[in-house]
Design brief:
Elements (H helix, E strand, L loop, with lengths): L1 E12 L2 E13 L4 E5 L6 H8 L7 E6 L2 E2 L5 H11 E5 L10 H12 L3 H14 L15 H13 L5 E5 L7 H16 L3 E5 L3 H4 L4 E6 L2 E7 L7
Parallel strand pairs: 3-8, 3-9, 6-7, 7-8
Antiparallel strand pairs: 1-2, 1-4, 4-5, 9-10
Amino acid sequence: MLEVKNVVKIYTTGDLEFTALKKVSLKIGKGEFTAIMGPSGSGKSTFMNILGCLDKMNEGKYILNGKDVSSLQDDELAHIRNKEIGFVFQAFNLIPRMTLLENVELPMLYAGLPAKERRERAMAALAKVGLKDRVKHLPNEISGGQKQRAAIARAIVNSPAVIMADEPTGNLDTKSSVEIMRIFQNLNNEGATVIMVTHENDIAQHCKRIVRFRDGEIVSDTLVEDRIIL
């Protein structure tokens, strides 16, 4: 499903260089549910940005769903992001003046799908995350947990190869966090590949595998013992 080989990422500010990733290699198979962890500055967010085709590496190779995306141009990367990757962010990133239905339709609008199909698929995705009775609500009319559920619906509506979640429970209370993790587990049980950045150990315990970063390198890669299954 996904493989990176000897990935190096260097940030340059004036005469200063900072190596955020140091020859990182990792494979994630189809249907895995992987947590990416590490302290601030460890490289986990940089790594996630590269996996999500939001940033480019200086060295290395990246294969996503059988495609070498290492050297693609910006417009090609944009196509990969829309077709192959479903993003879920800590801040939800919903458009305030659009209903939940319209927010979830957006990726399909960019993909050029007809209106009838957009509506049907958006309705189905919202129903899957328990929001079929909220489709006409605006983001400011629902709770934080419901906003994140809408964001997950938007992420899955194009049937991406992989779902990438960056601190998806970071702005939520405990009850809402558990609801979100239940949805991710259900999606994973249906075959979705999920990669999640989190700094919360209890959230990572819901995943199947934990990859830990420190100082730009992977320092451990383990299966989750005593996994929390909802």
